[in-house]
Amino acid sequence: MDKNMESVAKVFTDSPFWGFMGFEIEKLQEGDVGLSLEVREELYNVNDTLHGGAYAAMLDTTMGMTARSIENAPFVTIDMNVHYLHPIKEGTIYSKGRLINRSKSLFTLEAEVFDQNHQLAAHCVGSFKLLKKNKQ
């Protein structure tokens, strides 16, 4: 992993939320991010399946990391539209993100979550605002 991607990874992995959720980086290249998350009981909803908020957190994090892998600067989520496609009760889930469009300060991205059998479980499109560029 090059130094730029190492700095992107560090921003996310140093976050207390990252540690709380238990995300793992599967792939981190410019514009190409994949994460994984072990499904555990603490992340269940009242139906004993993975809570929609866990899906949303993974999708948001995947898109944010994808944006930052392209433009290594802070972003904030402006909006997200999540489609929940099927429930997951166990195993490991995986995500991947990609850039759809960008302007000077606004990135539109999408991300998907898959179960361990590669079945699509959730899809999301989100807008992310570039806050400022890092001085290098």
Automatic annotation (TrEMBL):
Molecular functions (GO terms): fatty acyl-CoA hydrolase activity
Pfam assignment, any one: 4HBT
Keyword Hydrolase: yes
Entry keywords, A to Z: Hydrolase
CDD domains, alphabetized: PaaI_thioesterase (cd03443)
Domain Thioesterase: residue ranges: 49-121
Keyword ATP-binding annotated: no
PANTHER family to which the protein is assigned, alphabetical: ACYL-COENZYME A THIOESTERASE 13, THIOESTERASE SUPERFAMILY MEMBER-RELATED
Family, per entry: Belongs to the thioesterase PaaI family.
Name the record gives this protein: Uncharacterized domain 1-containing protein
Organism the protein comes from: Alteribacillus persepolensis
Lineage: Bacteria, Bacillati, Bacillota, Bacilli, Bacillales
